């Protein structure tokens, strides 16, 4: 049966996944899993992209060892925004920085002195956030970066890795749309923003649509993995674009989705960007998707809060599994306190339990003392923040949505999934867990002619995986909690 290899990289770990299909169902198999830790060095926080490439090659080698000539194609998706700069010979000019690198600090004010944020939004459909590529490139310019002044081309992380695999340089559209440097309407570079920031036009190269076959793997790669001639597809290279493609949503205008992971991203799938003053005021963004769709969305802190609590407690000598943490949260008292998950204090890693306690103390609430209560406060607050975003989408679209389609690793947290249904007061359909890999593979299958379109791909996913349905309970109790919670937003 045809086999498609999906390289799925997150801001913490990566996997090479084999998708085995008879074109009626799809089965996923993890071939290789590896860590992707950020590294703090003199000069900032960086990604070890060379190490990632080595692990990708090892995953491909294992895939070839098992599936050989059944392998049809390879596709890559990663987190958004981060990029590498290359010279005229295709050589990488230093390790890519992490999007949480401190160089973004102070850059929004510098940027908006050059071009108002409302004008940036009018062109790009993206609000200014600490992780935007625009701010990090502006920081490079402000610092007089030798890499920027010597650069011939900019490639985002999945584009860079694809270049190393097949030797073809191109920028895939969905990943470029995270940068705040792409016009959400035309799909071309937002030259007005680029020029206003004083960035060199020459580094912004060819943009290709998701599903473009870039070329076959380089001979050196073929020798290393044991097979030649495998095409590399520019899949939906932004992991959220792949995740949305892999969620089998109902058709029509009631398709509200949630990609649940380190970041939680809630959005609508539309045909045109929404760049109204109301959308700008709600801090909603327009990123591009598969088949000329737009992902009108809002980023929310997500499982980052819970992941950081887990990491901190492990450093303190108490290692807990996510299952154990979910049980602790469920056993704790409900609605004892609230936090704003998107407060800037929670953005940086380290000491997350104490940050949650400090936030509650500063806002005059009961301070959670035990692990279960800390986790319950974080989980309930996250579900209630989903409600805030949900209400904004209802207002902006003029619709009242009846269900939320959720995919990604975060849906394994059944406590949070039920809390989401309770907070929103609508049904939550959860699945698939591996939405990102599914979407990556579906786009490869369309590119290679194994599927006609995205609708057929979503039907394939629907036929292949199980889904959990969560229905809302205790509506009055959650409505009262929501009203209290909204009083704390922005404090």
TrEMBL record:
<dbReference type="InterPro" id="IPR018485">
    <property type="entry name" value="FGGY_C"/>
</dbReference>
<keyword id="KW-0684">Rhamnose metabolism</keyword>
<dbReference type="GO" id="GO:0019301">
    <property type="term" value="P:rhamnose catabolic process"/>
</dbReference>
<feature type="domain" description="Carbohydrate kinase FGGY C-terminal">
    <location>
        <begin position="258"/>
        <end position="447"/>
    </location>
</feature>
<keyword id="KW-0808">Transferase</keyword>
<keyword id="KW-1015">Disulfide bond</keyword>
<dbReference type="InterPro" id="IPR043129">
    <property type="entry name" value="ATPase_NBD"/>
</dbReference>
<dbReference type="GO" id="GO:0006071">
    <property type="term" value="P:glycerol metabolic process"/>
</dbReference>
<keyword id="KW-0547">Nucleotide-binding</keyword>
<dbReference type="GO" id="GO:0008993">
    <property type="term" value="F:rhamnulokinase activity"/>
</dbReference>
<protein>
    <submittedName>
        <fullName>Rhamnulokinase</fullName>
    </submittedName>
</protein>
<dbReference type="InterPro" id="IPR013449">
    <property type="entry name" value="Rhamnulokinase"/>
</dbReference>
<dbReference type="Pfam" id="PF02782">
    <property type="entry name" value="FGGY_C"/>
</dbReference>
<dbReference type="GO" id="GO:0005829">
    <property type="term" value="C:cytosol"/>
</dbReference>
<dbReference type="Pfam" id="PF00370">
    <property type="entry name" value="FGGY_N"/>
</dbReference>
<dbReference type="InterPro" id="IPR018484">
    <property type="entry name" value="FGGY_N"/>
</dbReference>
<dbReference type="GO" id="GO:0005524">
    <property type="term" value="F:ATP binding"/>
</dbReference>
<comment type="similarity">
    <text>Belongs to the FGGY kinase family.</text>
</comment>
<dbReference type="GO" id="GO:0004370">
    <property type="term" value="F:glycerol kinase activity"/>
</dbReference>
<feature type="domain" description="Carbohydrate kinase FGGY N-terminal">
    <location>
        <begin position="4"/>
        <end position="245"/>
    </location>
</feature>
<keyword id="KW-0067">ATP-binding</keyword>
<keyword id="KW-0418">Kinase</keyword>
């Amino acid at each position: 049966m045809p086999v498609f290899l999906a390289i799925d990289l997150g801001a913490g770990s990566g996997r090479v996944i084999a998708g085995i299909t008879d074109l009626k169902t799809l089965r996923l198999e993890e071939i290789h899993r590896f860590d992707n830790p950020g590294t703090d060095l003199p000069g900032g926080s960086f990604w070890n992209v060379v190490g990632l490439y080595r692990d990708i090659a090892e995953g491909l080698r294992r895939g070839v060892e098992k599936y050989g000539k059944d392998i049809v194609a390879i596709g890559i998706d990663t987190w958004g925004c981060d990029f590498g700069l290359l010279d005229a010979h295709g050589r990488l000019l230093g390790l890519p920085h992490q999007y949480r690198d401190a160089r973004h600090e102070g850059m929004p004010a510098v940027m908006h002195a050059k071009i108002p944020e409302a004008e940036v939004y009018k062109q790009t459909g993206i609000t200014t956030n600490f992780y935007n590529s625009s701010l990090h490139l502006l920081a490079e310019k402000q610092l007089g970066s030798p890499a920027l002044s010597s650069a011939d081309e900019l490639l985002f992380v999945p584009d860079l890795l694809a270049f190393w695999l097949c030797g073809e340089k191109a920028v895939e559209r969905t990943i470029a749309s995270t940068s705040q440097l792409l016009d959400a309407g035309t799909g071309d570079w937002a030259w007005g923003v680029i020029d206003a920031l004083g960035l060199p036009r020459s580094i912004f190269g060819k943009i290709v649509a998701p599903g473009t076959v870039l070329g076959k793997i380089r001979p050196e790669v073929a020798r290393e993995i044991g097979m030649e001639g495998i095409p590399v597809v520019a899949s939906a290279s932004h992991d959220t674009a792949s995740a949305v493609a892999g969620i089998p949503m109902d058709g029509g205008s009631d398709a509200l989705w949630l990609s649940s992971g380190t970041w939680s991203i809630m959005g609508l799938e539309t045909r045109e960007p929404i760049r109204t003053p109301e959308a700008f005021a709600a801090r909603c963004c327009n990123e591009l998707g598969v088949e000329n769709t737009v992902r009108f969305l809002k980023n929310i802190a997500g499982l980052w809060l819970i992941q950081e609590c887990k990491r901190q407690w492990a450093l303190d000598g108490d290692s807990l599994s996510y299952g154990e943490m979910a049980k602790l949260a469920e056993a704790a008292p409900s609605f004892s306190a609230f936090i704003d998950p998107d407060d800037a204090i929670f953005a940086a890693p380290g000491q997350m339990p104490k940050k949650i306690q400090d936030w509650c103390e500063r806002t005059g609430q009961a301070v959670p003392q035990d692990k279960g209560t800390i986790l319950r406060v974080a989980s309930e607050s996250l579900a209630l923040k989903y409600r805030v975003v949900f209400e904004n989408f209802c207002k902006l679209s003029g619709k009242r949505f009846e269900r939320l389609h959720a995919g990604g690793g975060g849906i394994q947290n059944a406590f949070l999934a039920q809390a989401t249904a309770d907070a929103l007061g609508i049904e939550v359909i959860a699945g698939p867990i591996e939405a990102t890999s599914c979407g990556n593979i579906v786009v490869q299958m369309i590119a290679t002619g194994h599927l006609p379109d995205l609708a057929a791909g979503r039907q394939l996913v629907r036929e292949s995986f199980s889904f959990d349905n969560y229905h809302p309970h205790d509506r009055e109790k959650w409505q009262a909690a929501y009203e209290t919670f909204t009083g704390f937003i922005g404090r």
